[in-house]
Here is the input.
Amino acid sequence: MAKFIHYDYAQSKMLPINFSEQILPGTFEHTVHYLVDDQLDLSVFESRYCNDDGGRPAYDPAILLKIVLVAYSRGVTSSRKIEKLCRENIVFMALSADSQPHFTTIADFISRMSDVIQPLFLEVLMICGQAGLIGQEMFAIDGCKLPSNASKEWSGTHADMANKHKKIDRAVSRMLSKHREDDLHGNVDGDMRTKELKQIEKLKAVSLKVKKHLATSTDKIGSRGQPLKSNITDNDSAKMKTGHGVIQGYVGVAAVDNKHQIVIAAEAFGQAQEHDLLVPMISRVKTHLGCYIKEARLTADAGFHNTHNVTHCAEQAVDAYIADNGFRKRDPRFADYVRFKPKEPKQPKPFSNQDFSYNEVTNECRCPTGKPMWLSMANTVMGDHRYHKFQAYLNDCRACPLQTQCMRKPPTTNGRQVSIKIGDVKRVEPNLLTQMKTKIDSRQGRHIYSERLGTVEPVFANINTAKKLSRFSLRGKPKVNAQWLMYCMVHNIEKIQRYGAISQITG
Here is the structure.
């Protein structure tokens, strides 16, 4: 018969633990422990407390800051999970000196970081500079779009929300009318009535939420004077397109030095387009590092390319390399890029503008099936050309046998639209844009711009993948910006730990 080592659960074992010995030199938690205790100025937290003469002692902000930063480095943002780590994980027990703060204390500490995070981030950045981790050759600016703690289903203009409010009220009225009618005829189903009453209460709560939003806010107006979509849950966030579809979220922008990928400036913005974000980021880099902005080159992708940004860089004497949308097409190295694209299954070729017949004499347009279209906009300018815009009749499109080849999805409000080119617009291209194209198309310019990808993208990969920031857990721009800065600060502290900068500072 097989023999096994005897075991007995009814026994105790005492494990003596020295908390200071659990924070091992060379680890990330040791780096955080040293920086918070010996380098960072935590007097910024003093204004939060007024218990000098009486009241319960508060948790030391140094303890809370340590456990939050280490938790973020491990991809943990939940306050409840951080509390659990402080009870069960020996490293967190050591960092917190086994004080075991409650999750509400941790949540309150994180939600109020917006008041103090900027000076703390700047202090860590200065430590990186003292340790020689920041070069003065090139920095890259780019953005990373992340979902917010809000649903895109609750986005819309005030007109959209007003229509939704009316629709919800009509649904409630219909259900109540049905209940009254059932009561008169004695056709009451107890289980169904209970479910419908719960649904009515839920709809009333939603209706009240929409009504409050309409009463307490106004439409956000875009740069073109058109109302932008607001969000009931987080009005600072915005709808934005990503490679994975449309999200309700923020874009976290970072300026990263190319020597060791140190984040030298960061901010979260609640707007989909990035072309207005270059100037504030340049200003922030200038505030943080002064003359660095004049000594280093700046690289940014086509999302930041426009006349205003190029002009601003020229006025501020910033050596910028900002790609335009045609940069890759002009690069001879990408001439045969099509053959490297994955082959997609063959499908019927969708109709293009050339498949629509246009009569210049009568100014009439017909769709591929011969149906007439109406002129929706005449002589409009897009880019360097002038167009007539035609639109098919909705009923014709709904009944069209070639609908799937002509439209991406079945039409609901408008028929197929098409723009017919009728002429060109002679433009004098701004000289600065021409200079930027010439600069970035040069051999040196292409070499400098090629470093952008290896400078800023690893930072986003580290924060999004290794640190597991797949979405912001807070609401409102100040809090979301604080969370983004904390993750960027964690990234910088990790660089301090990885390159042994602590010994350089202490030595």
Observations:
- The CA atoms of residues 334 and 340 lie 10 Å apart.
